[in-house]
Amino acid sequence: MYSWQQSQWQQIMQRASLPHALLLRGREGIGKHELAIKLSQSLLCAAPKVDKTACGTCQNCVWFAEEGHPDFKLIAPEDVETSDEAPKKKAAKKSQISVAQIRQLIDYLSLSSHQVNSRRVVLISPAETLNTASANALLKMLEEPPTNTIFLLVTSQPQRLLATIISRCQAIDMPLPAKADSLHWLQQQGISNVEQALNLAGGAPLLALQIAEEGDLIATLTKHLSQGAQLDAFACAPLFTGLGMGRAIDALQKWVFDLAACKLAQQLHYHLSHSNALQALSKSVNLSLLLRFQQQLLEAKKLVNHPLNNELQLENILLQYTQLFKPVKLR
Ligand SMILES: [Zn+2]
Q1: Over the stretch 26-63, which tens digit does the pLDDT of each residue have?
Q2: In this structure, which of 42, 213, 300, 330 has its CB flanked by the most CB atoms within 10 Å?
Q3: How far, in Å, from the CA of 129 to the mean position of ligand 1?
Q4: Could you tell me which residues are beta bridge partners of residue 26?
Q5: What DSSP state is assigned to residue 296?
């Protein structure tokens, strides 16, 4: 649990009895899912501590930590991708909680709990990834809840849930953490420029961390791009795919935009602190190839959601980037 969630935790735990369905809602990037996991563990723990957090040592806690608790089910979106290639990056996948997953859940809950009279916990996160069919199947279950089962739903987009589902749950609104708490936590994560990252994230600390980490990644990528013809496309492509295809193309477009600006003696827009590197590259870049490359990036951008092999595609794009520069003469 994050430091800013203490009062929320107490608020939930002070209830005499928990309803059969709880809906945790609030902005993206504030730790709702993590809190729901803590709550699940605590609900299954045989000997919770005074503050009702899980003991961490009982058999239930051990199972839970090993992600093998027989009375806990996490329902998360599954990738729709059909390919069975190596793990895909997050860019191109469209994920949903399918009706098949909910049907499996119904089957599972129709059996008695693993341990006699013990409670079962079902965590559905993020709940807005339920589609129409799976949401309706879940609704039926919430209308006639199985005994001794607690449903936890987590969402940052409650407007995408069926109103009938929301009305079957007790909603808990999770506010943005206080700014001081978020800044303190981000500092502990070793992030520089915490204030800026938190602003960009609209005050959501986990999102700020992600933005800050991507910022570091973009700085690394810029360093690679500064190498021009010497760039190692094969080493660089996995870094770019780590950003996701959309963001990767975006980063390339911005760099190339500034490169063209430099060549045409115009002002830089995005990389003011890299003007020396861009000046040097602009001396050897072939302008007509550069303009054609910009067109290619536009085309690639249209296809970012297409389930291609992103890494191969990026390697190809980066190889073309290296071709924009006249060979460096060895002296
Ligand atoms: Zn325990």
Answers
A1: 999 999 999 999 999 999 999 999 999 999 999 999 99
A2: 42
A3: 31
A4: 174
A5: H
Model confidence band, residue 94 (pLDDT cutoffs 50, 70, 90): low
User: Distance from the CA of 66 to the center of ligand 1, in angstroms?
Assistant: 13
Angle ∠(281,284,286) on CA atoms, nearest 5:
110
Q: How far is the CA of 37 from the centre of ligand 1 (A)?
A: 13
**CATH code for the part of the protein at 185-322:** 1.20.272
Q: Are 261 and 294 in contact (CB under 8 A)?
A: no
- Of residues 226 and 330, more confidence is placed in 226
Residues in CB range of 227: below 8 A, 6 or more apart: none
Give 32 Cα–ligand 1 centroid separation in angstroms: 21
How many helices (H) and strands (E) would you count in the chain? 14, 7
CA–centroid distance, residue 221 to ligand 1 (Å): 45
Q: Residue 25: beta bridge partners?
A: 155, 173
Q: Is the pTM of this model over 0.70?
A: no
Q: Where in the chain is the domain with CATH 1.20.272?
A: 185-322
Alpha carbon of 172 to ligand 1 centroid (Å): 24
Ligand 1 centre to CA of 65 (Å) is 10
Domain with CATH 3.40.50.300 in the chain: 3-175
Residues 189-237 have pLDDT tens digits of 988 778 878 887 889 999 899 888 888 788 888 889 999 999 999 988 9
Query: From the CA of 118, how far away is ligand 1's center (Å)?
Result: 13
Would you state the structure tokens that stand for residue 279, as one six-digit string?
């000046």
Distance between CA 208 and CA 185 in Å, rounded? 11
Instruction: Kindly state the average pLDDT of the residues 139-148.
Output: 93
CATH number of 3-175: 3.40.50.300
Q: Residue 36 and residue 24: Cα distance in Å, rounded?
A: 8
